[in-house]
Amino acid sequence: MINKLIQTIQNRSFIRFVIVGCINTLNYYILYVLFMSLGGLYIISHSAAFIISMVGSFYLNCYFTYRTKPTFAKFFQFPLTYVVNYSVSTFSLFLLVDLLHFNEFLAPLIAAIIPIPFTYIISKIILEKE
User: Fold this and answer.
1) What is the pLDDT of residue 130?
2) CA dist., res. 28 & res. 49, Å (int)
3) Any idea where the domains of the chain sit in the sequence?
């Protein structure tokens, strides 16, 4: 089990995935802060920023992470990778803000880290298939 984890971390596509994830998280966070500053509720701001940043993530993962051609089929399957991501990050955000009373601007950064391994595995399956 540990050898498999080490192989995954050493995998170049995983490293590129983490880089794309950092870019995507920054994009998401900028949009989240923008929507919050316009008076949005944190869950609505989170959802809107999440959807917009997911489109950018699709193209970055196709071209940079997995070096594959984006297709309509992959584009419409790609949101499936984010069902787990969205569910885990939204639940984490709720826990952090409403139950643990974290700052609404800090909590999304923490909540974004938790679903990374799940999203990598699912996106790899969808985007690398021909």
Assistant:
1) 63
2) 5
3) 2-128
- Residue whose structure tokens are 């595995």: 121
> Is residue 82 within a helix (H) or strand (E), and if so which, with residue range?
helix 72-94
Write the single-letter amino acid at 99. L
Q: Which residues contact 21 (CB under 8 A, 6 or more apart)?
A: 57, 116, 119
| Radius of gyration (C-alpha) of the chain in whole angstroms | 15
DSSP 8-state symbol, 66: S
Q: How far apart are CA 90 and CA 76, in angstroms?
A: 21
| C-beta of residue 122 within 8 angstroms of C-beta of residue 86 | no
Distance CA 22, CA 25 (A): 5
Sign of the C-alpha dihedral computed for residues 34, 38, 40 and 44 taken in this order: negative
What are 21-48's pLDDT values in tens digits?
899 989 999 999 999 999 988 889 989 9
Q: How many alpha carbons lie under 13 Å from residue 14 in its C-beta half-sphere? A: 12
Amino acid occupying residue 41: L
Could you tell me how many residues make up the chain? 130
